[in-house]
Amino acid sequence: xxTSKKVLLSGVKPTGKLHVGNYFGAVKQFIDxxxxxxxxxxxxxxxxxxxxxxxxxxxxxxxxxxxSYLAAGLKPENVCLFKQSDIxxxxxxxxxxxxxxxxxxxxxxxAYKDAMAKNKEINVGTFDYPMLMxxxxxxxxxxxxxxGLDQKQHVEYARDTAEKFNRIxxxxxxxxxxxLIKDLESIRGTDGQKMSKSYxxxxxxxxxxxxxxxxxxxxxxxxxxxADPKNPDExxxxxxxxxxxxxxxxxxxxxxxxxxxxxxxxxxxxxxASMERMILPIREKKNELLKNPSYIISLxxxxxxxxxxxxxxxxxxxxxxxxxDIK
Length: 327
Ligand code: ADP
Ligand code: TRP
Description:
By secondary structure, the chain is mainly α. The protein has helices at residues 20-32, 45-48, 55-72, 89-99, 103-107, 110-117, 124-139, 152-169, 209-217, 236-244, 247-259, 264-290, 293-322, and strands at 7-12, 38-43, 79-83, 144-146, 177-179. Helix content is 55%, strand content 7%.
């Protein structure tokens, strides 16, 4: 870890298998940035507890996510990889943030409003989610936080909270910057909506070839025939080509769409081949990693030591500033 570099921090909840939206929207960014920053990447297991409430599933998901990070290209020598639950100080800081935050402010959070709109029975954890996320970010002195578009507001909440704490108690926290994917659009799922586990339109990043084939070949399209000109921007298959094709392949495909030289079946077959080209090596790597969970566990323990040390230091200052350290 090189302390002269800026600090990058990001995390994903272990709620199930990583999908193409998580990968291109968040994980790929911090993998691509890992040589430039001092990296802290974690598994947001207690955030996942708002939905994952079964011990076996939780354990499995944690190991799976860590293996996915590594298989997708996160280099252990470059990154402090840890799980959130190992840093108890985060939850202490989350409480302090709760006490300086008003209910109406949290009621304005998009994620909470969406959950309310869907009429879900919302637990307190879901409501309070942004405060725990602010603690994750601020306790590690993060400079940049690469996340998907839907998490941008949460990083803004972390900034507001840092500002508020610093104003009330004195300077403790840096202002983190969110980093978003360039075209500012969410990755679309098989139905053209934002890809999300909640919409059942995901493509798992580490799916087997057979699973990929099943999903790709059943992507809904319109009823245009092979020779009909097609608008690539209106096609769910083409939206996925944008992620997996090279720029030459993409311009050839776009031309064939417009001229009516390609049918959806062929387009899907090409998509499947280019997905498999990217996914095969990382799928194999992940399967190898999963054969040795004790390696993953020890890596997470090592990471926790480093992340904890930083968190303890920050909390020593915070306790002084709020007055609970009476020495
Ligand atoms: P989901 O919506 O499937 O439950 P998560 O909320 O667990 O996904 O998201 C994990 C990370 O992946 C977040 O940083 C999020 O912004 C990003 N992400 C998820 N879906 C997409 C998408 N469709 N496009 C871009 N980024 C996404
Ligand atoms: N809320 C993020 C998500 O749903 C996960 C997360 C928790 C996170 N704490 C974080 C991301 C801190 C970046 C920084 O994906």
